[in-house]
Amino acid sequence: MRRKTLHKRALTVESGEAGSKGEQTRSLILETALKMFGERGYEETTMRAIAEMAGVAPGATYYHFRSKEHLIQAYYERMHEIHAESCAEVLKKERALKDRLLGVMGQILKDMAPYHQFAGVLFKTAADPQSPLNPFSPESEPARRASIELFADVVRGAKAKIPPDLGAELPALLWLYHMGVVLFWIHDDSSGQHRTRRLMEHTVEIVVRLIQLASLSPMRPLRKTVLKMLADLRE
Amino acid sequence: MRRKTLHKRALTVESGEAGSKGEQTRSLILETALKMFGERGYEETTMRAIAEMAGVAPGATYYHFRSKEHLIQAYYERMHEIHAESCAEVLKKERALKDRLLGVMGQILKDMAPYHQFAGVLFKTAADPQSPLNPFSPESEPARRASIELFADVVRGAKAKIPPDLGAELPALLWLYHMGVVLFWIHDDSSGQHRTRRLMEHTVEIVVRLIQLASLSPMRPLRKTVLKMLADLRE
DNA sequence: TCGGATAATTGAACGTGTTCAAATTTTTCT
DNA sequence: AGAAAAATTTGAACACGTTCAATTATCCGA
Question: Which residue has the closest alpha carbon to D9 C1'?
């Protein structure tokens, strides 16, 4: 609600950009919050404490961020930018489908590592079907689309022979697979999440072999059945 | 903490059973809470309101239930009992693997239908890796085990030819599949969740065909790879 | 049946995330 | 530069889930 005003201002006149006073406090609050979450954990960090440390009244935080959970969304967005960048490197180097997928998944796990502690909280929020942070929600469609695009890149640049019908759905399917791995990662408290790494390496191998298998002509009927279902669900 | 006393009492002496005063208020609070959740939703139902409607002080609720979320766990347990019962019927009738799986999944969806509204809240809580309600947590291992046992029953009673190595892991895999369908169901706000029904019917078909496929001898290497991974992850 | 022990219940109080009307600062326009 | 408008900031207050010391009801053995 309040933010709407901010948006309008940013559209009608220029200002509201990085330099302006408001945007300055916004960053200050955000950086403070992220730092404190990192040091003491999410639940243990009070909105009052964040405000105090940022030298600001509690209410100010709510002017810039809709809720405490929305502060966490900042992590999310930051993480996404990092992914896109670090994966681009990998995709420039590798040509085999398996290596591309392995590289991308490896990068994603590496990028996420520092945030493992908050992932639980983020996930708890994101799991709520009502939440805009939910990866399946309409609000996060742009982010989801971008994320799927990353896997489209993985497929596109690979020199594997994939039937067009499968190729069209593959990015979304790989994204779903990637969500599964992340789900495992969130619950993985082995040191350095090495269990997730093992799972990922094994499953990438399996996924690639399944793709090869599905591309064979005797598999056409089953493949068509699966693709029909996906099309059907999309309405 | 407080509950420990209750448990000890229930073990050392008898009493604390259905008749006793304490157990009476416990049910009263629980029934009131479930009814109010049903009428107004979870977030909108206040602990104070529950207590007041039950004719009890707010503190009393916390003597019998550790938290508001633990009141929801009651739904969970209740649902599980219903599943076990209604699925038993289906499993007595059907012999083909596909029909057994279809029947069980259908029953589960039917049983859950009245609770669709709260499923989101339950899921939000259950998604927290810290939560005892999390289906992957140690605390819910008994429930998980029982649930997997249901799918073991599905496999056991079927007259499909399944290699022993796959047969051993299949119940857990089917349980995982079932969790996926439930995840979809939670996010499904189509009328009567008919999209989930469609998804379920299609995917059961696919799952069964995959099982048949995996049982073929040319698939032995891939099958072994998958099963190795599962064994590996179990430590 | 009585009295001690245990279980159950109370309700005020705490700390939390959050809201909001009022005050203040910043920006915009003439 | 100055005044009007808009954005920002304040901090007291609210409602909530929850805790806990004190109180009352219930149970059980002698």
Answer: A60
Q: Three-state SS for A85?
A: helix
A94 φ/ψ angles, rounded to the nearest 5 degrees: -90, 145
Q: Which of A98, A224, A233 to mutate to test the interface with B (most CBs of B within 10 A)?
A: A233
Residue B49, CA: closest nucleotide via C1'? D16
**Contacting residues of B for A205, CB less than 8 Å apart:** 225
pTM over 0.70: yes
Residue A65 DSSP label: -
Nearest-5° angle of CA A8, CA A9, CA A13? Answer: 120
* B136 neighbourhood in chain A, CB within 8 Å: 187
- Closest among B116, B220, B112, B208 to B164, alpha carbons compared: B220
Of A124, A198, A202, the CB nearest to B124: A124
Three-state secondary structure string covering chain B: CHHHHHHHHHHHCCCCCCCCHHHHHHHHHHHHHHHHHHHHCCCCCCHHHHHHHCCCCHHHHHHHCCCHHHHHHHHHHHHHHHHHHHHHHHHHHCCCHHHHHHHHHHHHHHHHHHHHHHHHHHHHHHHCCCCCCCCCCHHHHHHHHHHHHHHHHHHHCCCCCCCHHHHHHHHHHHHHHHHHHHHHHHHCCCHHHHHHHHHHHHHHHHHHHHHHHHHCHHHHHHHHHHHHHHHHHCC
> What are the pLDDT digits (tens) for B189-203?
899 999 999 999 999
Contacts of B209 in chain A (CB under 8 A): 222, 225
Cβ–Cβ < 8 Å for A133, A76:
yes
Give the tens place of pLDDT for each residue, B49-85. 999 999 999 999 999 999 998 898 777 777 777 888 8
Distance CA A165, CA A153 (A): 17
The closest alpha carbon to B181, from B166, B167, B195, B171, belongs to B195
Mutate to test the interface with A, among B173, B198, B222, B227 (most CBs of A within 10 A): B222
Quick check: B72 and B121 in contact, CB under 8 A? yes
Q: How far, in Å, is the CA of B48 from the C1' of nucleotide D16? A: 9
Q: Is A222–B199 a contact, with Cβ atoms under 8 angstroms apart?
A: no
Q: How far apart are CA A98 and CA B147, in angstroms?
A: 35
